[in-house]
Amino acid sequence: MSKKVVVLSTSLRSSSNSELLAKSFVEGARDTGNEVEYISLKNKDIRFCIGCLACQKTGHCVIKDDVADIMNSVLKADVVVWATPIYYYEMSGQMKTLIDRLNPMYSKDYKFRDVYLLATAAEEGDEVFEKAITGLSGWIDCFEKTSIKGTVLCGGVSSGGDIFSNTKLKEAYNLGSHV
């Protein structure tokens, strides 16, 4: 059964390792017949949440930028995939800003059940990724029917393209092919 998959690539660097990981996941998901929408946050206008909470009354954010279109895609997806570089042992600021801005989704009907995390970091070790997983889990906890179904965590890559000498691209492809 084909699924609608939305991949959110939060790195702003061209040909970044997390972007390459995301594109490998996309390839695996498409090769197995899924409908995949790849959304890069590069060149997107995504402003900070101002904490007005109007979205809790209206279901819409008062800020007019690219987030409404991204949110619409996420709401209609069966699978949501977040790809992020790790900065200071945490998800990218762009990813956190988008998570905050998806607050209007809280009261809406959503289709997604499965969430995946793809992350890259210069340092190695499971502890490098723990805070990003915890941060994403906080968002997922707000959507009772949803859970993290898989991760690909790749340490030891810092310069763009370092990941090409790593087996994690194949792992991301395989994970994408099994959504």
From TrEMBL:
Keyword Flavoprotein: yes
Taxonomic lineage: Bacteria, Bacillati, Bacillota, Erysipelotrichia, Erysipelotrichales
Keywords: Flavoprotein, FMN
Domain NADPH-dependent FMN reductase-like: 4-125
Keyword S-adenosyl-L-methionine listed: no
Name of the featured protein: Flavodoxin family protein
PANTHER family: IRON-SULFUR FLAVOPROTEIN (PTHR43278:SF2), NAD(P)H-DEPENDENT FMN-CONTAINING OXIDOREDUCTASE YWQN-RELATED (PTHR43278)
